[in-house]
Amino acid sequence: MHILLIEDDLDLGKALQAALRQGGFSSRWLRRGADAPERLDPVQQDAVLLDLGLPDGCGLQLLKRWRAQGAATPLLVMTARVGLADRLEGLDGGADDYLSKPFEIPELMARLRALLRRSAGQASENWRIGDLTIRPREREVRVCGRAVELSPREFDLLNLLAGEAGTVVPKGKLAQKLAPLGEALDFANLEMYLSNLRRKIGAERIGTVRGIGYRLLT
């Protein structure tokens, strides 16, 4: 999964990127609001970590603009503003969670995982889709209780399908999300990874909508 990090503090930004990488996330780090995307594209990022106190303006303006545009991407606000009015303004402005500085990075990571679970409609860290169990944090998969060994790319593909279980996920979206920091995978490689995944978890668990995409069956 890919995280958009907007934080001007150099030391904190480096520490957060390291923690995200260790947690299995890719990330893009920006230090100014002016460099932030005009719109949030759910294909480009799965969640946003946003500092409100940016050097070239208030991150709250970014948050309100994105929400006014209809963006539903999970977003966690980080700020040194600790007053109740500030917290309420951030939450009412569209933040899904709010963390006051200074904070412990393990807490931020736990809150981020919780946001992503809720976004995927999962109640716990162990995602269950039928007899399929996925543990995103440990990058483990079980089918009927049996451990299944997946390559990193195969796991990421399954995780993407599980995040929208029962829904058709377009090929282009999968191809881009599997290579968030570079050029999207070509469809031939995507289909190769999908074929391997079907072989390992059971072909009947992944449906194809010809010309559109794939769906993890529930």
UniProtKB/TrEMBL annotation:
Where's the OmpR/PhoB-type domain?
124-218
Please provide the Gene Ontology terms (biological process) for this protein.
regulation of DNA-templated transcription
Gene Ontology molecular-function annotations = phosphorelay response regulator activity; transcription cis-regulatory region binding
Listed Pfam families: Response_reg (PF00072), Trans_reg_C (PF00486)
Annotated DNA-binding ranges come to 124-218
- CDD domains referenced in this protein's UniProt entry, alphabetically: REC_OmpR_PmrA-like (cd17624), trans_reg_C (cd00383)
Q: Where is the Response regulatory domain?
A: 2-116
Highest taxon of the lineage: Bacteria
Has UniProt tagged this entry with the keyword Transcription? yes
Q: Which residues are annotated as modified residue 4-aspartylphosphate in the UniProt record?
A: D51
Which InterPro entries does the entry mention?
Answer: CheY-like_superfamily, OmpR/PhoB-type_DNA-bd, Sig_transdc_resp-reg_receiver, WalR-like, WH-like_DNA-bd_sf
Record flagged with keyword Transcription: yes
Sorted keywords for this record are: DNA-binding, Phosphoprotein, Transcription, Transcription regulation
Give Gene Ontology CC terms. cytosol; protein-DNA complex
Q: Any idea what this protein is called?
A: Response regulator transcription factor
Q: Lineage, please?
A: Bacteria, Pseudomonadati, Pseudomonadota, Betaproteobacteria, Burkholderiales
